[in-house]
């Protein structure tokens, strides 16, 4: 009896060792050269120009295969003497969410299971602006604006003192010289600490492999901005880094039918954003948290 | 240098012998290990699905972006930190009954640490990029990010809690006296380190100004107080199991002493919670929303309410049981108290701590979170793995402590299959 027991144990032991070795073999051999390259890809800011070129070429090839479109992936650096700032006139916003969808189209955010948006428009009862607990995020009336309500669009406020950058354990997110808080989607490990740290809900997560219909994809992208992302990486508004570094307005500014959205260089005394800060009544969301956001809400004079 | 080499050679030989030891045991031992293994495999299958499809397989969202995994992680860090409770009195004050069991306590802490680290791993979206976190190889954001601190603190604590007991056990196995000059600094270091891991974990939440529920300076003390309740409570239970299934002697006196310490810790825990509740409710600012969600429900969302009140009832009952000497010193009521503490503290500082931090979210949205099957199964898998690791560690540590498993026996060839069967039969008789 005990002898039989012994051999059975022996068998189980030998079997499990063989099984383990057998299981690990296909995993090792199935790794192509490309997968190994992906695995070992460096942090964007530590790449040489040559390495950046290689990565861009690889990505362009991959996007072509996936979307059937020729992508232009820019790595354009920040313009000198620039610090981007944003203005939003609350007295004009009608809550139409044109900005929300213009942003999604421009920035290649995932469209379904989970639909991601970088801009959120909150509907607040008149008489209150600060306590957001009674805000409605999913209002859906026939027409806007509705009587008795005001609208508060919120997106990444591009803090000069960003809590998300401070908490990221691996420098996957940082502030560019022009003040934009960028993410290296290929470096993010998906711990979501930045989501917990952001007081504006400015960050969203690719809970699944993101999806964009082929005919809706925007092929003009920036590496740190709107290039298609991958599952389980975090993403956020970049003030349309791919546009603003080429002298264009962010998509949301262009899309707004009421002209509530303003954009410009805070370091340029003649810019529109400086005009607004100096002459209108501006405030910043959650100023008490000392995030030094560069997103100014204002009212007509 | 030479002694270090000798130490590693001794440890390697010891390691080979332990492999033989853990692969043999009674039927109950096999049944226990294989059922744990089955749970681990099921958990792994569910995890693999999550790994392939992404975290969409869980019920976490952009609103509640951390869930059951991080709740378990927080709780287990506390469990591991509690080993310090056994280290302080035994090594510093030479308190006799506790000293025998401190090695087991430290191995328990190590098992908890493995589980805590695994809970963080399964919560990561990109496990393939985990090397980005490694110091020197990746790009660790140290000292700015508290998560980077936590990686160092947790792994350091895991190392200490494996190194110290293994050193002591190896020495004991070879029948040698440990070199106290060598090991004592590590033991002394492990005491502040235990406080450190839990403080760093508390600061991880504490430092987030965006989350008023966590942004309270009372958080770290509360964490420590609750850890010193749940950790020792589970240790009391484990020690009773150990003394039942093995020849190791653990006196009742040691258990009662630990229970007394739990009573003080629970008083502190309840007091600190009371202080926080007073501040929130008396000042009554908008920051009260998360507390309201937890304790009474917010805008008809009240999923956590029954849980937290159950936890409060358990904690208060256990406090009374441990405070009154007659119930503390009776094993039945002592064990009841321990169970109440283990579950009560898990609710309070697992889900009851993590989820309200996200409800309402910074823009006032209320999104309720319930873990789904994937999260439950993966969690069970990790708990089973922790238990299995602890079982195997005990399988080696206990015979050494009792002197059944020593080097000399092997040298003389006394331990053969026959003598092993004999030892096994001894265990059975004792039961």
- Helix-strand string of chain B: HHHHHHHHHHHHHHHHHH
Annotated CATH architecture of chain B: Up-down Bundle
Strand content of chain B: under 5%
Uncertain spans of chain B? 412-418
- Percent helix of chain B, as a range, is over 70%
Could you tell me the mean pLDDT of chain A?
91
CATH C-level class of the largest domain in chain A: Alpha Beta
- Rg result of chain B: 23 Å
The radius of gyration computed from the alpha-carbon positions of chain A, rounded to a whole number of angstroms, is 24 Å
Proportion of strand residues of chain A? 15-25%
Jot down its keywords.
heterodimer; A: alpha+beta; Alpha-Beta Plaits; 2 domains; four-stranded mixed sheet; 9 helices; B: 431 residues; mainly alpha; Formate dehydrogenase/DMSO reductase fold
Outline the structure in words.
Chain A is of the alpha+beta class and 301 residues long. In chain A, the strands form five sheets. In chain A, strands 10-2-12-11 form a four-stranded mixed sheet. Chain A has a two-stranded parallel sheet with strand order 1-8. The longest helix of chain A is centred in the N-terminal third of the chain and has 29 residues. Chain A starts with a helix and ends with a strand. The mean pLDDT of chain A is 91. Chain B has a single domain, classed as Up-down Bundle (Formate dehydrogenase/DMSO reductase fold), CATH 1.20.1630. The radius of gyration of chain B is 23 Å and the shape is globular. By secondary structure, chain B is mostly helical. At the A-B interface, helix 1, helix 5, helix 6 and strand 7 of A face helix 7 of B.
């Amino acid at each position: 009896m005990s002898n039989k027991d012994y051999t059975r144990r022996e068998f189980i032991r030998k079997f499990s060792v063989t099984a383990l070795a057998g299981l690990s073999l296909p995993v090792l051999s199935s790794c192509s050269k490309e997968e190994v390259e992906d695995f070992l890809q460096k942090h964007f800011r530590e790449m040489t120009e040559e390495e950046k070129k290689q990565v861009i070429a690889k990505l362009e090839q991959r996007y072509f295969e996936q979307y059937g479109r020729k992508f232009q992936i820019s790595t354009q650096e920040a313009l000198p003497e620039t610090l981007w700032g944003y203005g939003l006139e609350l007295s004009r916003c009608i809550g139409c969410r044109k900005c929300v969808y213009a942003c999604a189209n421009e920035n290649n955010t995932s469209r379904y299971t989970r639909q991601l948006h970088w801009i959120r428009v909150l509907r607040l009862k008149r008489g209150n602006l600060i306590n957001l607990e009674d805000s409605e995020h999913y209002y859906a009336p026939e027409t806007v604006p509705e009587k008795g309500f005001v609208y508060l669009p919120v997106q990444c406020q591009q803090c000069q003192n960003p809590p998300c950058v401070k908490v990221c354990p691996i420098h996957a997110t940082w502030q560019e010289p022009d003040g934009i808080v960028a993410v290296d989607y290929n470096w993010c490990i998906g711990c979501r600490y930045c989501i917990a740290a952001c007081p504006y809900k400015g960050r969203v997560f690719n809970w699944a492999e993101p999806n964009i219909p082929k005919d809706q994809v925007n092929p003009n992208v920036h590496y740190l901005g709107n290039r298609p992302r991958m599952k389980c990486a975090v993403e956020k508004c970049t003030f349309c880094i791919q546009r603003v570094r080429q002298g264009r307005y962010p998509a949301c500014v262009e899309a707004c039918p009421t002209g509530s959205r303003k954009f410009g260089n805070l370091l340029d005394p003649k810019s529109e954003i400086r005009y607004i800060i100096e002459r209108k009544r501006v405030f910043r969301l959650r100023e008490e948290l000392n995030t030094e956001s560069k997103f100014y809400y204002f009212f007509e004079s | 240098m030479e002694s270090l080499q000798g130490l590693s050679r001794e440890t390697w030989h010891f390691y080979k012998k332990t492999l033989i030891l853990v692969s043999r045991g009674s039927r109950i031992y096999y049944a226990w290990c294989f059922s744990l293994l089955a749970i681990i495999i099921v958990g792994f299958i569910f995890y693999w699905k999550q790994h392939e499809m992404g975290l969409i397989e869980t019920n976490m969202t952009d609103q509640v972006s951390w869930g059951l995994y991080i709740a378990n992680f927080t709780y287990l860090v506390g469990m591991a930190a509690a080993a310090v409770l056994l280290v302080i009195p035994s090594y510093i004050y030479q308190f006799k009954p506790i000293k025998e069991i401190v090695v087991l306590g430290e191995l328990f802490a190590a098992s908890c640490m493995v589980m805590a680290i695994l809970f963080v791993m399964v919560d990561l979206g990109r496990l393939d990029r985990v090397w980005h976190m490694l110091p020197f190889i990746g790009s660790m954001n140290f000292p700015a990010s508290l998560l980077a601190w936590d990686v160092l603190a947790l792994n350091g604590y895991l190392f200490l809690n494996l190194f110290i007991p293994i050193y002591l056990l190896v020495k004991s196995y070879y029948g040698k006296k440990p070199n106290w000059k060598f090991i004592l600094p590590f033991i002394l270091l492990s005491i502040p380190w235990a406080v450190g891991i839990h403080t760093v974990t508390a600061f991880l939440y504490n430092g987030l100004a965006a989350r008023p529920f966590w942004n309270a300076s009372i958080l770290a003390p509360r964490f420590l107080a609750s850890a010193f309740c749940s950790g020792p409570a589970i240790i009391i239970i484990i020690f009773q199991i150990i003394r039942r299934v093995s020849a190791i002697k653990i006196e009742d006196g040691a258990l009662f002493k630990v229970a007394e310490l739990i009573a003080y810790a629970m008083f502190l825990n309840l007091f600190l919670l009371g202080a926080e509740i007073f501040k929130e409710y008396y000042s009554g600012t908008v920051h009260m929303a998360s507390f309201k969600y937890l304790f009474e429900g917010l805008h008809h969302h009240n999923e956590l309410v029954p849980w937290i009140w159950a936890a409060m009832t358990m904690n208060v009952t256990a406090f009374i049981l441990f405070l009154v000497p007659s119930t503390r010193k009776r094993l039945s009521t002592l064990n009841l108290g321990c169970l109440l503490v283990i579950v009560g503290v898990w609710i309070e500082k697992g889900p009851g701590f993590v989820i309200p931090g996200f409800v309402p979210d910074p823009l006032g949205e209320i999104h309720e979170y319930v873990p789904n099957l994937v999260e439950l199964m993966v969690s069970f898998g990790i708990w089973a793995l922790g238990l299995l690791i602890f079982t195997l560690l005990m399988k080696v540590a206990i015979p050494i402590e009792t002197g059944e498993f020593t080097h000399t026996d092997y040298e003389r060839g006394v331990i053969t299959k026959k003598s092993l069967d004999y030892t096994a039969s001894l265990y059975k008789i004792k039961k």
